[in-house]
Amino acid sequence: MINISLYHYLIVSSILFCLGIFGIITRKNAIMVLMGIELILNAANINFVAFARYGNFGNSGQLAALFVIILAAAEAAIAMAIVLNIYKTFSNINIDEIDTLKD
């Protein structure tokens, strides 16, 4: 039986974080960039919960993760509204092709 330690959680978290950064840097589609941001936030949640579990911090890690989940839901709703408005205005959601703001 494998004993899962803090090291395993940190490896999974760092992989998610790197995938999120890779998604933000390489993608031109605004929705894919938002998915990269969500991956980064999930990596932070794994760290919060893992350090709370193995560092004996009580429920503070779970509360921080819950706050990040609420923040991510609000960010996703606002970002999708902005992306829909950009699509309505420019008929495109590629970040590189949208370089001016119009009224």
Question: Summed up, what is this model?
Answer:
This protein is mainly alpha-helical. The chain has helices at about 5-25, 30-55, 60-90. It has a domain at about 30-95: Helix Hairpins, CATH 1.10.287.
Task: Describe the protein.
- It contains 3 helices and no strands.
- By secondary structure, the protein is mostly helical.
- α2 runs antiparallel to α3.
- The protein has helices at residues 6-26, 30-54, 60-90.
- It has a domain at 29-95: Helix Hairpins (Orthogonal Bundle).
- The mean pLDDT is 87.
- It is elongated and about 55 Å long.
- 75% of the residues lie in helices and 0% in strands.
- The termini are far apart.
List its traits.
single chain, 103 residues
Q: Can you tell me the CATH topology of the domain at 29-95?
A: Helix Hairpins
Main sheet record: none
Poorly predicted runs of 5 or more residues: none
Integer average pLDDT: 87
Helix-residue proportion: over 70%
- What's the architecture of the domain at 29-95 in CATH terms? Orthogonal Bundle
- Provide the CATH top-level class of the domain at 29-95: Mainly Alpha
SSE pattern: HHH
Secondary structure layout plus pairing:
Blueprint: H1 6-26, H2 30-54, H3 60-90
Helix pairs in contact: 1-2, 2-3
